[in-house]
Give the backbone structure.
Amino acid sequence: MIALVQRILRLAEGYRTRIRIAAVCSFLKAFLSKAPIIVAYYLIAAFIEKRVTGMSCALSGAALVLCLCLQCVFQNLADRMQSGAGFEMFADLRKKLGEHLRRMPMGFFTEGNIGRISSVLSTDMVFIEENLMMVLADLMSHLFSAAIFVLFMFAFDWRLGIAALIVTVVIYGIGEAMKKNTLMHSDERQAAAQQVTDAVIDFTEGIGIIKTYNLLGEKSKELTESFQVNCDKNIEFEIDYAPWSRAINLTHGIGSAVMLGLSWLLYQDGTMSLAMFIGMLLFVFELFSPLKAFYGQVARLTVMNACLDRIEAIFDEPELDNSGIGMIPDSAEGPEIEFQNVSFGYDEREVLKNVSFAVPKDSMTALVGPSGSGKSTIANLLPRFWDVQKGKVLLRGVDVKIVPLAELMDKISMVFQRVYLFQDTVYNNIAIGRMDASREEVEEAAKKARCYDFIMALPDGFDTVIGEGGASLSGGEQQRISIARCILKDAPIVILDEATASVDADNESHIQAAISELVRGKTLLVIAHRLNTIQSADQILVIEDGEIAERGSHASLMAADGLYRNMVTKRSEIKGFAR
């Protein structure tokens, strides 16, 4: 248990001094709360010895008032030292987690870890920050008090001291066994909480498909089962904890009775005076209370321990190496982008096999091929969403692995099919592209992206707050705002996951015009879905099974009568292909 407290103190870092001061204040407050017992013992001894006077009673009353005032002072100091510390600690920890996640490979976010991250943020961190400061200083105070009370018994009589030490050791042994058992159930309880988070995210994200295929009953049942499992695990936790708690309480009671009986024997043989015996009567039931209170918090601490395990597990996930000091030159004589014998795979599955190609400056290279062939993987390796396992990705002749991520991302803009807008003003959503941009520059970018007119038609224009994910805007409007971001950023390289593949005809013309503004004078890497939109590409790479099967211009590939021509021919036969 002490190790758990030490672990939490290590987590506190810059807040340790505040916590230690709070612990000292809590101990002094707890010690002063025993003042009535001490004053009562003093008065009883004086009464037995027939030396009670008005002055001694007045002094006793003044001592009680002083102790009460000091208790208030120390309680106030303890509260000031520890109040809000848990929230401040975890505000810092969340920022660190955000920085850590920012440096994680994108693969981490596609392996079912979204629910895990959500659970850590919404369950584990919240539990610790809401409970940590409520108990930590008091726990440290309980430990100090337990040690001092045992020493106090040795000062009374060595036999009382040995008896108190034995009872303390027994309570400690039961408490440690309770901790080990509760730790196991704490892990299961927090795992069940994560499963609920996963189930809720899965249900809400798939609600459209669930309704379309009338799966509400089946999927609702799965969600309900997750809630039930979580409920069962919490009940099991409490059921398993109760016997240990009863054992602690029973040992506390028996230990107090033993101390009382031993005091009576010492009084009977004349070793202990009547005043000291009466003092023990007053004090004996407080003797083991600090240790009992300490282990009364074991459930909270073990859940905190499980929470810390899950938090640390995410922090232990490897980051992309960002220690490089390489710089991307403003210009280079060679290719703007170059892949040299690049191989890459997810876990055991190889996706790219010895891929090599070069992209000249201010040119357009299109990636085409069947779904799952590796097109998106190639595009994602350039901005280091993942790191290559073999070979090199060069940007203006510099290996992207040795370039700091911030420096690399300054050179690249990306437009995805799936756009995400933050719950913020339209202005701030565009200004993300370059935070130091003036309002005039943001508005100019909106005009070039063909979204100025519909923005001005919104209730508050650029200051209109849009829903999370851009829910209050149409798909085409969201896409144009994302393009405005990229125009404002003005990066020399643009990666385009063909933005018009899933929009209506009315929006398509606006988006095509916006993209024309975006790519002017840029090096363009396009993941192509509609083959008729890349006929003017300087270079087309046909990807099949992770390899470049064909490369060349549209005309040369059509003349070659290979995979590319076959794809164009088949898609031309689909009704509505020609536009």
Remarks:
- The radius of gyration is 35 Å.
- The first strand starts at residue 337 and ends at 346.
- DSSP finds 21 helices and ten strands in the chain.
